[in-house]
Design a protein that fits this description.
alpha/beta; 9 helices; binds 2-acetamido-2-deoxy-6-O-sulfo-beta-D-galactopyranose; binds calcium ion
């Protein structure tokens, strides 16, 4: 508060006297979980309708070649906030729910850059970047956390919907915790008197298909164990309402612009337990209904901005953290009721995969009156959001930002049809995109994830695809184009070496 008042009374007055104020849009980053390239009706889905997202896309730029940095959540979010490829830092794979925070508070981050530039910053929803220093006492103030990397306000799902602890954490404190019923969380062994899905399948309202057989919360067994905190445990059915209400409250604070809101939905990650009012929204069961619920959440955000007459002054970005998966560990009829729906659209693979389905996701950028409605084939990556949003906000990117993120603000605003020259995709192996060429580095990993039935794209031989002619990555041209393979492997190594200063 003090800082804001000081800025507005002195520095702000000086600036105002010198030059007309450039528009500094609010930035709302809507970050869905596991939404695939083909999961929205504005990206071709037929069996689910996403009218709010479609409206956002109709009024903005809809990207056809936009990427997360990785094919799973934690590394993608790491890159999103730091502008650094996650492969540069050890320990940035999918985290357990009791992991320490993996972003070093001394690192440059998107929220801190905006906060230091005068933005009010908030994070609501899925975090999955770890909290605390490694030995979190969930009954005390939990830090470091979002505040230490630049979010003034936070209301978090600490890890994932399927991982303990199954409680919300607001500004570092577990919400609704009864001090007489303290919480304990562990991942190494069960608590003797706390029921698990493995030992008590009859207590479950949704059974696991693989894994997910540990502590039972709200009739659903999870990954990880927890004990206590009964009053604080979430109800999955209410989660979308709870986090949307928190996001709306953040947006509604009067006279507090510009703001930056990161809104990370639990939808459509497992367990997929949308509110019963979405029960019959699609014929696809919980996975389809969770997409409908996600669209509702987006609609509530849009309606709030509209009500506050902020649409002309707000850059709204919608995207996902990795590609789609159908059976990700619960018997939720996703496979049985999928029908003709194609979660990856025309792409091969999906979540966890080196193929395009792993990291190519929907991206919609909308800024009423500033962004011309269009479809863009520009190659863009979330690793660029730090530098690009800093530019849009009229701020200098932090000097020590690692080499990965670029200022792609022109591409993101629909003014440059090309975007990046190259980008790295991280899954079991690593891939390099250069224009329409896609090189997948040889890897000894499994070809198929037998649990999720995903083609992982691992192969001991190099793979090279020409996506301009073969978007579905079916014709490996590596043997015919050996020089290109050698050049792309060399370039990948050069990119990897360029960042060794960053751990
Ligand atoms: C996997 C989980 C999966 C999901 C994923 C992380 C099992 C068998 N599978 O290990 O259900 O939680 O991790 O998803 O436990 S992500 O979107 O957060 O990266
Ligand atoms: Ca995810």
């Amino acid at each position: 508060m003090l800082r804001r008042q000081f800025l507005s009374s002195t520095a702000g007055a000086l600036l105002a006297a010198q030059a007309p104020k450039p528009p500094r849009p609010n930035i709302v980053l809507l970050y869905a979980d596991d939404i695939g390239y083909g999961d929205l009706s504005c990206y071709g889905a037929q069996t689910v309708k996403t009218p709010n997202l479609d409206r956002l896309a109709r009024g903005g730029v809809r990207f056809t070649d936009a990427h997360t940095s990785a094919a799973t959540c934690t590394p993608s979010r790491y890159s999103l906030f730091t502008g650094e490829y996650a492969f540069r830092k050890k320990g940035t794979g999918v985290l357990p729910g009791d992991a320490k925070m993996i972003i070093d508070p001394s690192q440059p981050t998107l929220p801190r850059t905006l906060r230091e530039g005068g933005y009010r910053t908030g994070a609501v929803g899925k975090w999955h970047l770890g909290l605390g220093n490694g030995k979190v006492d969930w009954n005390q103030l939990i830090q470091p956390g979002p505040r230490e990397i630049g979010f003034e306000y936070s209301f978090l799902i600490p890890a994932t919907g399927d991982r303990t602890p199954c409680v919300y954490v607001e500004n570092g404190r577990v919400v609704g915790l009864d001090p007489l019923d303290p919480i304990q969380v562990r991942y190494d062994a069960p608590f003797p008197d706390e029921p698990t899905g493995k030992a008590n399948p009859s207590m479950l309202k949704m059974k696991p298909s693989h894994g997910h057989d540990m502590t039972i919360v709200n009739g659903i067994s999870r990954i990880g164990y927890m004990k206590g905190g009964a009053a604080a445990r979430w109800k999955d059915e209410d989660m979308a309402d709870v986090i949307t209400q928190k996001a709306v409250a953040f947006l509604e604070q009067p006279g507090q612009e510009p703001f930056f809101l990161y809104f990370g939905t639990q939808d459509i990650h497992v367990p997929r337990v949308p509110h019963p009012r979405f029960a019959n929204k699609t014929t696809m069961g919980p996975r389809g209904n969770a997409i409908a619920q996600l669209d509702w959440c987006v609609g509530e955000i849009l309606r709030t901005l509209e009500r506050r007459r902020l649409l002309e002054n707000t850059l709204i970005v919608f995207t996902s953290d990795n590609g789609p998966v159908v059976d990700d560990g619960y018997q939720d009829e996703a496979v049985e009721k999928l029908g003709s729906h194609k979660p990856t659209g025309p792409l091969r693979g999906g979540k966890y995969s080196n193929f395009e389905g792993g990291t190519r996701v929907p991206l919609i950028v909308n800024w009423k009156g500033h962004v011309k409605p269009a479809t863009s084939a520009a190659l863009v990556s979330q690793v660029d959001f730090l530098r690009s949003f800093a530019r849009v906000a009229g701020l200098a990117a932090p000097g020590s930002t690692p080499p990965d993120g670029e200022d792609q603000s022109r591409a993101l605003l629909g003014q440059d049809p090309v975007g990046r020259e190259f980008l790295v995709e991280q899954a079991g192996s690593r891939s390099l995109r250069q224009g329409a060429w896609k090189y997948i580095r040889p890897s000894a990993g499994a070809k198929i994830n037998k649990l999720t039935n995903t083609e992982l794209g691992n192969d001991p031989a190099p793979q090279l695809y020409d996506l301009a002619k073969d978007l579905g990555e079916t014709r490996n041209l590596a043997a015919a184009e050996t020089a290109r393979v050698v050049a792309m492997e060399a370039m990948l190594q050069k990119i990897e070496a360029a960042g060794t200063i960053n751990r």
